[in-house]
Hints:
The complex is a heterodimer of chains A (605) and B (141).
Chain A: E1 7-15, H1 20-34, H2 39-56, E2 63-70, E3 73-81, H3 91-102, E4 105-110, E5 114-122, H4 132-148, H5 150-254, H6 263-293, E6 302-304, H7 306-317, E7 325-329, E8 337-339, H8 341-357, E9 362-371, E10 376-383, H9 413-424, E11 427-432, E12 438-445, H10 462-468, E13 472-476, H11 480-492, E14 496-500, H12 503-513, E15 517-521, H13 529-538, E16 546-551, H14 557-562, E17 568-571, H15 577-594, H16 597-602
Helix pairs in contact in A: 1-2, 2-3, 5-6, 6-9, 8-9, 10-15, 12-13
Chain B: E1 6-9, E2 12-16, H1 23-40, E3 44-48, H2 57-72, E4 76-80, H3 84-93, E5 101-103, H4 106-122, H5 124-136
Parallel strand pairs in B: 2-3, 3-4, 4-5
Antiparallel strand pairs in B: 1-2
Organism (chain A): Virgisporangium aliadipatigenens
Keywords (chain A): Coiled coil, Kinase, Phosphoprotein, Transferase, Two-component regulatory system
Protein name (chain A): histidine kinase
Amino acid sequence: MDSVPESAELLRLTARGERDVFVVRQRGREVAAALGLDQASQVRLATALSEVGRYLLPTARPTTVAFRLVDASIVVTLTVPGAVPAQPGSPLTEGMRAAARLMDAVEVHQRPSSVDVVLRRHLPSHFAVPPAPELARIRAELQAVRASSVLDELGVQNTQLISALEEVQTQRDELLRLNGELEETNRGVLALYTQLSDEMEQTNRGVVALYAELDERTAQLREASEAKSRFLRNVSHELRAPITAVLGMLRLLLDPRSEPLSSEQSHQLTLASTSAQDLLDMVNQLLDLAKAEANRLEPRWGSVDLRAVFDQLRGTLRHLARPDVDLLVEDPDVPVLVTDEVMLVQVLRNLLSNGLKFTARGSVALSARYDEAAHRAVLTVTDTGVGIDPAQHERIFEEFYQVPGTKAGTGLGLPYARRLCEVLGAELTLSSEPGRGSTFTVSLPRSPGDASPIHTTVDLKPIPAAARRMERVLVADDDTMFREHVQRLLTERGITVTAVADGRAALAAARAERPDAIVLDLRMPHLGGLEVLGALAEDPRLDAVAVVLVTEAELDEIGMERAARAQAVLDKATLTDDGLVGALYEAAVRRGRDIPTQRSGSDER
Amino acid sequence: MDRVPVLKIGDILLVSIQVDMDDNTALALQDTLTERIVETSAHGVIIDITALDIVDSFIGRMLSTIASVSRVLDAETVVVGMRPAVAITLVELGLSLTGVRTALNVERAMELLELSRPARASSLSVVGDGLDVFDDDSPVA
């Protein structure tokens, strides 16, 4: 007995589920048989295991069953994880009571995480405990049997299945947890989205409010701009009178017929006179600009020969050039243009004097060529002066803007030139680099009919045809001199002229004869020009008739509005023959463009 | 699920338990047997437990229950083929197998059932006698 270890384990197995009861008690029987116990003892041990196992194993928890040989007793320990109700009266207690009848001792040990049920049976006194090698052989045999047991195989598979199931359960839990997290994130994203869209909406409202404010500011700015123009116009008018007076006085003083002056006085007076003249020029520029801003510049169309214009400019501007600067004015090879000569000269003069102002040495050149395809004359003013930074190219056309670092000039010349170009239908462009001089280009239409961009010329094809139909003109003016002058002027050009002396007659003649154009005086007895215009506007049969309004007075705002039916408003005091004829043709062209072509088609006479 | 076969020999049903019984098998056997008794009007049931090495209190109770139910259905139950070691263990466990008659083998059981038949068929009082006879029987034949 001493050679045997105190507790020699013979077999250990794990059982689970009701069916394993049979395995456990079969193993118990085998253990007893292996130890050499008799049939009854084998059945006794097996039955005891059955009694206990029927109540322990169906819990489906893995139960460890260990068979040991301790102090000449067979000790079977069944270990169940977790708690098992073992109070008196419970099924387990019943099973244990039954087992106790067959065994020497049955005990329950409640442990923190498991329950041990221990069955103990003393070996019969005649029974000799096998020596250690014998025990080892028995153990090996038992385990060999165990390995081949199908039920154990099933048990192993079962265990694997259960662990797989547990894993699946774990994964499902994990999935649920992840799902929960995702939902949480989703809620977060949704909240964020809501917040963002709220913010966007708020920003949007802000932008809308900003736009409204901008609109308001724009209106305010426009008002301010108009106020400025009005102020400029008024101030310039007020300034012009005294300067004219001063100039007159100076001229009287310098007149050779007046009292003789000392050469010093004469020199000083000349200086004063020059300054006054400069001042007058500036005031005139201001006034022109103010007029341009109020859109009161009306071109007086007439035939213009660029050669004459260039000659004039060459003569008047030569003295402005500095000693080291050449003013080069080419002889242009350009057909006669229909434009406003005064305005064109003004534009070119401004550009040239600007170039001369900013050129210390080198040359300022004026050249012209004719673009046949576009029906445009291209006039170029090139200087070798200081040049202009590209960033300033647009700003120099702003009023009172001066390129930083320059002193000369009022800052009015270029903006005014651009205004005039707009009125003439011309484009004023600039290419320049600092230190390399500047080139201003004026692209001037041959006639007002060509003023539109090239790509629309196809649409305007009918216009010359309409203009050619200038056969009958009605002249309405109470001024006999003017009336007869115009009649003679137009008759010379093969136009049939009907002349009337008042508005009522003019209306009657217009209705009766339906002329191609009417030259209408503003102030007439019985019916004024504006009233005639109103009657014409209401008569659809007279839609095709072009109207040129002639007047001695400047029209106010309301007058301008009422005169909208007229294609041109001409100042009688400054009117030239060419100007009137040009304006008539231009008016016919404009009228032909404004009214629908179908009317001219049905109107064939 | 293992099933226990129920065989019919004349007006006797023979049940041979060859497998280890658990709760479900026991209930299934009980159901099958009662149905078959009604179906065949059997007057006797022989349960052969030769194949059982171990009879614990669960099996004991099951045999008792089957016997009781069968008797209510007018069929006597005899358990045969019990092994000596099993018998010893049953006694040690203190199981009395109330209402269950036993015989050494199937042949003896059929004789036993044949003997009780005329009495049973005659009158109700004889049935009562039969019951008395059962009570007097020792569990071990």
